[in-house]
Specification:
mainly alpha
């Protein structure tokens, strides 16, 4: 018998209730240097991005997802924030137009 099995056999305890919890959300982990690199990238790339229709839809959706996932939005500079807002509105309007 292995040492861990022997310990478990000798130290077993009876409990009245067992509580099970499911994790709702996985942790988002990124080192500070990588986070700063991503922030710098989006600060320079977002002002150059324009939503021009269905050809850019997937790319813009990925950018919006990444900015939200890594919580970069509040830390972007003003020009990048304005561009982010315009991209969101452009994508939202395009999708609303397609549903009609």
């Amino acid at each position: 018998m292995a040492a861990s099995d022997e310990y478990a056999t000798n130290r077993w305890e009876d409990v009245d209730t067992i509580t099970k919890m499911a994790r709702v959300e996985e942790a988002v982990v990124m080192c500070h240097a990588c986070w700063q690199e991503a922030l710098d990238h989006y600060n320079s790339a977002l002002p150059k991005m324009k939503f021009t229709g269905s050809g850019k839809m997937k790319r813009i959706a990925n950018v919006l997802h990444n900015v939200r996932y890594y919580n970069l939005g509040p830390h972007l500079d003003d020009e990048a924030k304005e561009s982010l807002t315009n991209l969101r509105l452009g994508l939202k309007g395009f999708l609303a137009g397609e549903e009609e």
